[in-house]
Amino acid sequence: MSLTEKEAMRIATVLTEALPYIQKFTGTTLVLKFGGNAMVDAELQASFARDVVLMKLVGMNPIVVHGGGPQIADLLERLNIESHFVDGMRVTSSETMDVVEMVLGAAINKNIVSLIQQHGGKAVGLTGKDGHMIRAKKMAVTRSSPEMEAPEIIDIGHVGQVSDINTEVLDVMLASDFIPVIAPIGVDEHGQSYNINADLVAGKLAEVLKAEKLILLSNIAGLQDRDGNTLTGLNAERVQQLIDDGTIHGGMLPKIGCALAAIEGGVKSAHIIDGRVPHAALLEVFTDTGVGTLLTQ
């Protein structure tokens, strides 16, 4: 069945629109945080895998960092391990950390590797423990009030933050045909494992590698104003105005903070995109309009 003239022109337009972006970003590093609906919907999983394979084939260096909160919660429930949260963070005992490593470092990580390879790419699954890639330190959570003589320090277990990134393993990967797929598990100097927020890991990796782009897949259509319109082309000053007037609030605050920190650390652009849209990453990188919020220096 042959294409109509209109269909042929539409395809040609899409391909020619992508050409300058391919030329511009060949040889650059892109860090993509894979999470949300895109991780649990089979069609979206496949479209993301194809996007990453295409990026690699046209000369870019994609690095995938993934989350897995819902999958961790599901397994903990099946194992009758109760979950507790402090300020939105899961209290992670040694027992819970074992489950986190099983889910993130094994099940989810290897599934993403397999998906990429099914679509013609070469992928290697890693955690931050491999090659001491992600050095972590225990996250301290404090609470204070006027009634307290001193702030209360709350122990949330094996929840960490990035203290250092060793890029040796990634340097080898980026010089090869392999796509790194990274689970956000770090290790401290004593060999203790820590669960780290995937957005924070992706942002820090992008910053250390001086990546061209940090792309965070989310379950909303980017950053929106009070009328539901997606905002884009933002810089740090405009973002701060939106925080001050309450437009940016709640769960979007840490994601925006992560993106801004990456920009301030040398990443050329950060994108918060709608992972519910098939091929969202490809549309954001290779088209003029994209499908989310762009933050630049």
Count of the separate structural domains: 1
Sheet with most strands: 7 strands, mixed
CATH superfamily: Acetylglutamate kinase-like
- How much of the sequence lies in strands comes to 15-25%
Q: Which blocks of ≥5 consecutive residues have pLDDT under 50?
A: none
How much helicity do the residues have? 40-55%
Q: Using the coordinates above, name the CATH class.
A: Alpha Beta
Termini distance? 47 Å
CATH architecture verdict = 3-Layer(aba) Sandwich
N-to-C SSE series? HEHEHEEHEEEEEHEEEHEHHEHE
| Total of helices | 9
Task: Please describe the structure with a list of short key phrases separated by commas or semicolons.
297 residues, 40% helix, two-stranded antiparallel sheet, Carbamate kinase, seven-stranded mixed beta sheet, alpha/beta, 23% strand, globular
